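Please describe what follows:
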Amino acid sequence: MEILKYVWQLPQNLLALLLLAWYKILGDLERNREYAPEKICLYFSRFMPSGISLGKYIILSSKYLKGYFGKTIDHEHGHCRQSVMLGPPLSHHHRAPVTLREHP
């Protein structure tokens, strides 16, 4: 089932992997843990202005390491759940407007 879910979310997962690779090249990426219940991979970077969820990956700003970030993770986890339900169409109809609005 996990393989089917990963393939269903493939465009978002690939975009997340590219973004994570870029942050790793820049030398600023910290993997925190897997976030239950769906084994979401949670990362932090100072280059991320806020937070983004792409497929099974959540990437948050490093500023969230200094304090409580539960509500932010819950919010991004909600987008991960939407991704499971909507799959590829989510990346085209939801991500671009949100990203442009939140990250000028």
Observations:
- The longest helix spans residues 70-86.
- DSSP finds four helices and four strands in the chain.
- The first strand starts at residue 30 and ends at 35.
- The radius of gyration is 13 Å.
